[in-house]
Amino acid sequence: xxxxxxxxxVFVTTISVLTSPVQPLNALAAGATAVATWNTASANxxxxxxxxxxxxxxxxxSALSRQTCDFSDSSKFSHPAGASExxxxxxxxxxxxxxxxxxxxxxxxxxxxLRSDASPYAVSTSGGSGxxxxxxxxxxxxxxxxxxxxxxxxxxxxxxxxxxVSGVTITSNSxxxxxxxxxxxxxxxxxPASSTTTPxxxxxxxxxxxxxxxxxxxxSTTTTLAKKVxxxxxxxxxxxxxxxxxxIxxxxxxxxxxxxxxxxxxxxxxxxxxxxVNNTFTSSAGGISTTISVTQADGIQRPLNLDGSxxxxxxxxxxxxxxxxxxxxxxxxxxxxxxxxxDATTTDASGKTQSNVAVPKGLKNGRxxxxxxxxxxxxxxxxxxxxxxxxxxTSRSSTLWIGLLIAFAIFVxxxxxxxxxxxxxxxx
Length: 428
Fold this sequence. Notes:
By secondary structure, the chain is mainly beta. It contains 2 helices and 33 strands.
């Protein structure tokens, strides 16, 4: 009986170990990168995991909203991750706290964007030195000691936290009284590159040409950085070529509401006059005019909403045409929030540019703005910015309910007088 109970206990213990979902920290292969995965779509406190370690993330003001971020651009992320990683929308005037179930060494903050208007950002840690430094990217930004600073525009890249920590807190500088988004971010880590000790080998210098050196030497420690083949006492090291693609940083543009336009010429904002014709919206100021329309997936032009604002939905195509620019000038089309680069064009001989772009997937319902950046005929930098609205299926349902309410009101308006007349006749 005792042997049977012992065997059963061993069996149950074995099954428990084999089916345990928790991976130990350092489960990553040497040099590999992981970014946190998150389980909660929207809340003030959300949960997830990083390299097998459970994480919670808390925001003190507006609820966090899970988004999808592209951390694959190696020109900004020296430890690139995936093109569709989980990340969270961090509101202004808030304190953000990551808490780890087990301490993590040298975690890395991945910023899809970080606004300058809430800078500087104070960083504190539980454990470790709490010192921060820019690992890659973060144009016009810096990080030192316990402060992250974004001087202008939007920062995209990695900020490294030194030491083994069990928590990280980020505090933004207050911006007015609003709670609008000023960061999209997540957290990750990269396992250290492996180091191996190889007897009777030589150390070689890497160059554009492969080199081979033979002969016995004392034991040496080699950190693997490039492809290396060791045969007996011969070490061959070959170099690799890295191609870096430069990405245009998202510019700062003025705030606009849906149905409004602003033209910025040489850093001076001009409120635009707007016209609406056949479900197109035109914003004009300072000799610059931008006309926007939206085409549905079925090819039908989408109407403006009741407020006269441009409305876009998933599957739509956005048409943006701007005139009054310098001939043969570069022009870029941006979508905010997020600083998404939608298109790059060149103006024609008359100074006109036109873009036809698909509405990016995964956008939440709400307020957005598009901005065309280029130069005008006087060779001065300009931005033409227009506010618009993203709607989804829920908006169609709302429209249906509104229609039903109107129909019910019409019915009541017709039925009540008839009923009253009938009552009067019966009373007489």
